[in-house]
Each structure stands twice: as C-alpha cells, then as structure tokens.
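User: Can you write out an input/output pair for a complex, sequences first and structure second?

Assistant: Here is one pair. Inputs:
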Amino acid sequence: MDVLAQADLRLDANAIDYVLLAFYFALVLGIGYLARRQVSSSLDFFLSGRSLPAWVTGLAFIAANLGAIEVMGMSANGAQYGMPTAHYFWIGAVPAMLFLGIVMMPFYYGSKVRSVPEFMLRRFGKPAHLVNGISFALAQILIAGANLFLLASVVNLLLGWPIWVSVILAAVIVLSYTALGGLSAAIYNEVLQFFVIVAALLPLTIVGLYKVGGWEGLVERVSGGPGGAEQLDSWPGNQLTGFGSNFLSVLGLVFGLGFVLSFGYWTTNFVEVQRAMASKSMSAARRTPIIGAFPKMLMPFIVIIPGMIAGVTVTELAGENKAALLQGERAPSGATFNDALLLLMRDLLPNGMLGIAIAGLLASFMAGMAANLSSFNTVFTYDIWQAYIKKGRPDDYYLRTGRVVTAAATILAIGTAFIASTYANLMDYLQQLFSFFNAPLFATFILGMFWKRMTPTAGWVGLVTGTGAAVAVFLLAETGVWDLPGQGASFVGAGAAFVVDIVVSVAVTYASRPKPAAQLVGLVYSLTPKETLRHSTTGEDAGWYRNPGLLAGIVLAITIVLNIIF
Amino acid sequence: MADESRTHRAGVFDVRLVIALLMGVYGLVITIMGLGFTTDEEIAQSAGVNINLWAGVGMLVFAALFVVWTRLRPIRVPEEPQGEE
C-alpha cells in the first residue's frame, strides 16, 4: 500500500466526525449483543435459525460483497475506465444473481443442507466434500486477512492511527459481534452497513455532480480528458478488457466475465449463498438474490460516477496525471486511481458529512471481513469438525465450537493481515485464487444438478483437475510464456477451469459407477418431484410483489434498459 | 394470517428500528451542523451545496419512513418456538 501513502490523504476529521464514527461502532456492538439473545442452537448461530425476511437477507447478500474491492476498487476502475466498469455489475453480477434465485436456490434451500460443501457431500460423497470444504476455509482466512489489512491501512492513511492498532481494534470489534450473535449479528450489521454506505456515497455523488455541472458537465469533461468519450458508454469496453477488437471485447465480457466468472462466483460462493439459506421460507430464499439485484443494479451510479468525477476534478488525478496513469506510468502527483474516492471525499465533504463518509468506508471493510468469518466458522464447524473430527456430539457442543472457531479464525486473520502487508498487489492475487476455486466448482455443480449419471469420483476429480487447469494458465501468464492482455488472464483461466472440469467429469463418469437414483432425490433436477421445488404462495409469501419470477423479470428488463442507455 | 392469535409483536429488537436510530441520529447531527456550523468556505468547497443540511434532512425523512414501516408491519414472533418443519 506504499503507493497510496505518497499522495496527501489525511482527512481533516474533527470531534463531530469522531462522535458520528463512535456512534456507528456502538450500534454495531449493540446489534451483536441483542442478536445473542436469539441464539439457542447451532442452527441459530450458523444460519440464523432460517428465520430472516427476504429484504434483510437480500440486502445482506449485497452488503457481504460490498467490501474493499467493491467500493474502492470499482471507484478506481470508474476513474480509470469510466462507464465500462458498470459491466462488473450489470453483466458480471445481475444475471448470475437471478439465475441463483430462479434455478439453483430450490436445490440449496429445498435439500436443507447447511452449507455449499454439505451439498457436495450429499451429491458426490466425502472426497469432493473434503476438497471443497478445505479449499473454501483456506480462501476465507486469506481473504479475511486481506480485508483486515486494507481496513487498517485506510484508517492509517485517513486518521493517522498506527496499522497494528487499527488491525487489532477492527478484529476485536468484528469478532465480538460475530462470536456473540453468529450469522444474525453479521447479517443485521450488513444491512446497517448497506445503509451507511449509501448514506456516505449518495451525497458525495450529488455534490460531485454539482461540481462538474451535472451529467452534461461530466460528459463534456470526460470526453475532453485523457481516455476520451469512449469512457461514457459501457460497450464495447475495449479499454477494460484490453482486447483491440470490439468483437473480441464483447465476447470476452459476455462469456468470460458474464458467464464463467460471475456465475461461478455468485452461485457457488458460500459467503453469498449462506445469506439466502438464512431466510425463512423457500420463497424468501429465492427472492434473496433477486432483491439484492435491485441495489446491485443501481450501485454503479454511486460507486463508478464518483470515480469518474474524481478522474476529472481532483487535481492529483485529472489531466496529465490521468494521462500518465492510463499509460501505465506513475502520475506526477504520486496518486493512483485507488485513491479516487478518498481524494474526492477530502475535496468535497465538510465536517459532519465527512464523519459519515468515513463510517461508510469502514463499514464496507468490516462487512467483507465479517462475511468471511461467519461463512468460515459454518464450513469449519459443520463440514470439517463435525463431519471428520468430532462426530455425534450434542448440539450445544457445536455451538460452542462455532464461537471458539470464530475467535481462532480472527487470530489467524490478524496473522494473514500481516502477511498481506508484505504484498503490494495481494487483492489481485486473491481474486485470481478465488476464480481458481469458483469456476470449476460451478462446472461441477451445474453438471451434478442436471445430469443424474455423474458419479462421485467424477465430482472430486473434476474439481481437482479444473483448479489445476486454472493454476496452469495463471503460471503461464505470470511467467510470460503466454502473453494475455489486461484482465484476459483471469478470464481465460476461469474458462479453462470450466472446460477442463466438464470434459474430465464426463470422461470419468463413463468410467465409474453412478450413485443409485434413490439417493439423489432433491439434489438432481430430473429426480426431484416438481412440487418440492415450488415455494408456497400463501400467507407471508403471497402477492405478486413476492413472486420471484416476476421480480427477476423486472430486474432483467431494467438492466437491459440501462445497457441500452449507457 | 390464521395463526395471528398465537403471535406477539417483537420487542425492541427490530433491525429496522436500529437502522432508523442510526439514520435519525446522523440526520439530526448533520442537519444541525448544516444550519449553524458549516462555514461559507466549506459550502463553497462542496460546489455551493450545503450538503450537511440536505443530506441531514434526507436521512431524517428516511429514518421516519423506517419507523412508519415498523409501526405498520411489526414483526410477529410465534409464542411457541417452532420445531423443524
């Protein structure tokens, strides 16, 4: 993070700002304490007793993903590439979220599994379960550490607190509420965080637009600046993909980002799916990702547009600085696109609003870390500890284990945070790792859900070889053997993982014995009675505005309109 | 709902009230800041918009809407703890 430190980012926070910040943290801890009273079994702790309404889980679904990469990274992308960044939301998230709600959620929620690895256990047996459980747990600890470190370094830059103080303080706060109240506390806080983030970014966007003279003013200044008018339309997005040809660029966006990467991430990542599993009925579970898609679709306007405004108004980023950064050189001012949001806050917000904006940023970092911890403790307790180490203990034993595991995970995350501090581009690296695991997982899931013959052996062999293929592409690109442009390396890696997983799974299936059909009811599409996939439409699930299919249609229509306008 | 008789309103802990509390306090503080303590210099810095005032009023309205929603549709908690369905 030494690149950040070169620009002067110290914010002029005063007593009022600190009071607003402290009030937010008091409420966060209060939620943890209150949620604790609702926890009486391990299911309460790990899945909120499957009792939450859909709007709560839907917003948590989005907030869990609204961490460091999202808020800071996407506004940085906005400053650098402009509107094409919206593809990460409109192509790279919304369709996959709708697919999760409409097609996959009935299997997850209907089979009453408690985690994504547990679905693997029921469908493919122990080897696939263990591979998935361990790789997921490992990834979560690494990512939690990276989130923690980013949080601490932002606090350090903004307020001047030493890194180690902020790391430990943030870890203690997140630990207290997740260990006390379990998933409910994490989810309630994610909902609160969502509103604080919006309360921080929306006024910033409005002031920024005033500053540049409205949308027309922004259009004029972006067109006149380095990067040009191309940055105002989301298609074809050549600058973002790094492909020269429009056709290849669109193809890369639709299949690489839109299909393999995003479906892999949103539909199999337990951090997300866990939020939907915590909802109170099948209908609510299906609506969770669909309700989340509404704010997701609008998020570009308060994340990317401030980035674009920063790119034309903030002295350290505009003009020759932006030109230099676009060429891949150091800006004369020493700032980078990652600083876009912070610099804009510094330039535009008075004390008062500034405190809320800082609270919003810290909220988004904590949301990410709490989400990692709460999904880690579930997978570790149910899928590793209960399944392989201490079987058949009473439920309160596992509830206690969950709390201890959360504490242990936090300590490990502090450790990985200090490892993270030694890498400059750890976020990119972790995102790449993530696509290693998610792309093959998605391939295995889709085959396993729709093809009843697929065998247990094919399940784990496919996963392992798929991940191997992605790692191989990564190594080839890293060592320069295969020159891949822009973000091309992770698109191609994910694609390779997906294809290799499918080919190997099909080949292994024909060489091994399938599971008896009776064991696959509720797990495979053709063997599951249609009634069990349907959700109730009475009582609290009644009404057209609670119909998942209709809601998904509305989201899809608005997304298409947004794509046509921009 | 048929079984409404066997439910009661949830107590203080409705996440909507917590959200309303946060937004209400934030809104109140920055509205007051905007009315009395935001200097002309700061207003000029935010492109001539008194953002403390406007964002404050916006948050107060938002908080009020959440309180109304909580009043109109309170959470109902079953008296008997439900078993596995």
